[in-house]
Amino acid sequence: MAVSFSLEGKVALVTGASYGIGFAIASAYAQAGATICFNDIKQELVDKGIAAYKELGIEAHGYVCDVTNEDAVNELVATIEKEVGTIDILVNNAGIIKRIPMCDMTAAEFRQVIDVDLNAPFIVSKAVIPAMIKKGGGKIINICSMMSELGRETVSAYAAAKGGLKMLTKNICSEYGEYNIQCNGIGPGYIETPQTAPLREIQPDGSRHPFDQFIIAKTPAARWLKPEELTGPAIFLASSASDAVNGHILYVDGGILAYIGKQPK
Ligand code: NAP
Ligand code: GCO
Fold it and tell me: How far apart are CA 177 and CA 31, in angstroms?
C-alpha cells in the first residue's frame, strides 16, 4: 500500500486559524489538497483571515465562533457539514495564555485559560466525532505545548490545560480508535507568533528580552522556530500515512525536551 501524505478530498476544520500556527497549518493542508474551514471570535479577524488565505490562492471557509461556547460550536459544525461536508480533520488550535504568578492569578483567570485551552478541545472534538464515526474515521490533532511536559513560572493555568490536553488526546485515542479515529497531539517548541511576541520584545537598551535569550540557550538550534516548521508534522498526522499512529504527542521543539541547555559562558 503506497504511503500517502495527500489530503485530497478531505475537509479540515482548524480552530483559531486567522493567523499564527493555525493559519500556517491550514494553509499547508490546503496545499496538500484539503478544503479549509476555520473560525475566530471576531468577524473582523475572520475577514482578515479569508483575505490572507485568498492571497495564497486558498478559498477558505471562515466562521465566527467562540470555541468555549458549546451551542455555537455545535452550530458551527452543523453549518460546515451542510455547506462544505463532513469534517475529516479537526485541529484544536485555538488557545490563549495568561502569564501571571499563580498566587496573583484569580480563579476566574485560571478558569478562562482552562476553558479555551482544554474545555474547548473537548467541546469541538465531541461535536465532530459522531459524523467521523458515521463516515468511517477521522483525524483529530490537538495543539499541545512544551507545557504539556514542563512547568515554568507564571503559566500555571496554561500548563495545567496543556497537560490535560495531552491526556485528553490519549483518551480520545483510547475511546474512539476502534472507529478508525486517530487522535494525536503536536507539541510545538517556542514559535514566533503573536502569542510569544511579548517574550521576544527588544529591551529599551536594545538588548534581547531575557526570555528570548533563555529560549536561545534552551534550544539546540539556538533559535525560535517558525509556524511553517510545524506543517510537515501536521500534514503527516492528518494523512493516511499516520493511520497507525494514535495517542501520540509529536514534539516539534527543535530538541528542547532533549537538551539541558547551553552552559553560560
Ligand atoms: P495566537 O497567535 O495567540 O493565535 C491564537 C488563535 O486562537 C487566534 O486566532 C485567536 O483569535 C484564537 N482564539 C483564542 N481564543 C479563542 C476562542 N475562544 N474561540 C476561537 N478562537 C480563539 O497563538 P499561536 O501562537 O498561533 O498558538 C496557537 C496554538 O498553539 C495555541 O493553542 C497555543 O497554546 C499553541 N502553542 C503555541 C506556541 C508558540 O510558541 N506560539 C507553542 C506551543 C503551543 P483572537 O485573535 O480572536 O483571540
Ligand atoms: C511561554 C510560552 C509557551 C509557548 C508554548 C511552548 O510563556 O512559556 O508562551 O508556553 O506558548 O506553549 O511550547
Answer: 27
Cα dihedral sign, 173-176-182-185: negative
**How many angstroms separate the CA atoms of 126 and 122, rounded?**
6
Closest C-alpha residue for ligand 1 atom 9: 16
Beta sheet of 138-143, edge-to-edge order: 61-64, 35-40, 11-15, 89-92, 138-143, 181-188, 249-252
| Tens digit of each residue's pLDDT (9 = 90 or more) over 77-103 | 999 999 999 999 999 999 999 999 999
Report the C-alpha gap between 83 and 94 in whole angstroms: 22
**Residues 28-55 pLDDT 10s:** 999 999 999 999 999 999 999 999 999 9
Whether the pTM exceeds 0.90: the reply is yes
Task: State the closest ligand 1 atom to the C-alpha of 69, by its place in the atom list counted from 1.
Answer: 18
Which residues surround ligand 2 with Cβ inside 6 Å? 97, 99, 145-147, 152, 155, 158, 188-190, 195-196, 199
- Residue 160 CA to ligand 2 centre (angstroms): 12
Q: Which of 29, 53, 63, 158 is catalytic?
A: 158
Residue having the nearest C-alpha atom to atom 10 of ligand 2: 147
Ligand 2 atom having least distance to the Cα of 145: 13
All cell numbers assigned to 216: 536561545
Task: Please calculate the CA angle 90-124-111 and round it to the nearest 5 degrees.
Answer: 125
Q: Is 244 helix (H, G, I), strand (E, B) or coil?
A: coil
